[in-house]
Description:
By secondary structure, the chain is mainly beta.
Amino acid sequence: MREGRISLGNVRCDGCQRTITHAERYLTVDEEDGVEVEKGEKSFYCIDCSLQKGYAEYRGEKGEKGEQKLTFFPGDIQSPEPDSEVQSPEPDSGETAGQKKNDE
């Protein structure tokens, strides 16, 4: 399992062996023999090593130009379409939102 974290300054990258400095992002991954598994030994990777191993990537939002964001999520996870609207449930018994029925 992948977990993105923020270093407190006492983490060493298992890839390049450098100390991951305070407030720097890093990734923990459950691995066995260098392969990601659901439950295994925790490995710690800096951003550069995460990118090299394919555990991280930069992605842009669909239809947006320029800005890319770092993600540790496995590939092809789709965000909701920006044009889709969330439908709220219809009020019961003829009431409208914010209005109570007077039963007196």
